[in-house]
Amino acid sequence: MKLIINGDFLAKPKTGMGQYLLQILEHQKWDYEIIILIPEYLKSSVKHIPQSIQKQIQYIPTWYTRNDLIAQILWEKTVFPKAVLRLKADIVWSPHSSLSYIPQIPHIMTVHDVIYWRLPEYIPNWKVGIYVKLLKKSILRANKIITVSQFSAQEIENIFNIPAKSISVIYNSSSKLAVKHSDFEEQEKYIFYEGGLDIRKNVPQLIEAFAIIVPKYPNLCLYIAGNYFESSLIPNIPALIAQYNLEDRVKLLGYISDEDMVKYIQGAEILVYPSLYEGFGIPIIEGWSLGTPVITSNIGAMKEVGGDAAVLINPNSAKSIAKGIQSILQDDLLRQSLIYKGYERAQEFDWNISARQLGEILDNQ
Questions:
Q1: Which of the four pLDDT bands, split at 50, 70 and 90, describes residue 231?
Q2: Residue 176: per-residue pLDDT
Q3: What pLDDT digit, counting tens, does each position of 30-51 carry?
Q4: CA dihedral defined by 282, 286, 292, 294, rounded to 10 degrees?
């Protein structure tokens, strides 16, 4: 059996979908001939891929070398399907929502979330609007939909009217292991945030919540990981920090490596993840795996993943976030309980299990 995979997100290793694909491929033990297709001009962007996966990659020549939304449309709509037909695939897996449609070949598609349909502000122009319309058609044509939480499964069913029996839930996991780093030199006490800076991530509410508790904790800082740049989808975070006179207390760390991310999470008093909308929420598991108590939102996928192993707050209320932070800072028993429950809960999310479950779905097509 020949399985062909759309591998273009392997060239984007810092994205959630890039990490998802890489982790599944590293942990799978499928009995298939696996061929991963990637545009040839992205070859230099996948040098980080383990050699075991490199052997499965075929680079497909394209008449274009651009790397933008138009290129993604061309790849998913024309180049990738033609290559699939030429290579005579028995089954196709798109590890992200894709425009691809290949008649008469079973197509499994992972739909991580429905942000475009729930948050229309994420459609900033007509080009993205066209892409989203085409995307809906391809999602409806897929033979099987995989998603990453029960919350996302319900959202997909409601928005696309896809029968529940056509949707399977396979949870994500985290690649960050609980390995202690004795060389971490950060001396300040700090709360830590990671997970992106766009509007649904809700960083402004976190900064306001931190401003509420600052008078009680004069030695506490807030560290925010992620690249800040001007965009209609990214709030003016430096201006918010200045508004609350927190320039000396809130640090924008910018991009940090995976190794340093582990260190920052392990060194934090709390990991706060107050997102407004997610398909899953991997930072929650990262906090648990690394022994750091977690605060997250009491809605959607965050509530589903967090369960009773995190402090759940109202993400629309800075006061609620502040109360959640203070509850952990003031109660060491609660802190230790969350660390224990978090570690136990993290064991339920495993890339080996995810890869095995995906393989079972492929086998049944």
A1: confident
A2: 63
A3: 999 999 999 999 999 998 889 9
A4: 10
Pick the CATH number of 2-173+350-363 from 3.40.50.2000, 3.40.50.970, 3.40.50.150, 3.30.1360.30: 3.40.50.2000
The CA–CA distances, whole Å, from 282 to 82, 271, 275, 287, 346 equal: 34, 12, 12, 9, 10
Strand partners, 273: 296
Confidence of residue 179 (pLDDT cuts 50, 70, 90): low
Q: What values do phi and psi take at 196, rounded to 5?
A: 105, 160
> Closest by alpha carbon to 59, among 96, 1, 129, 8?
8
Write down how long the chain is.
365
293 — alpha (psi -120 to 50), left (phi > 0) or beta?
beta
Rounded to whole angstroms, the Cα distance separating 197 from 203 reads 7
Decide if 2-173+350-363 and 189-346 have a common fold.
yes
**pLDDT tens readout for residues 269-309:** 999 999 999 999 999 999 999 999 999 999 999 999 999 99
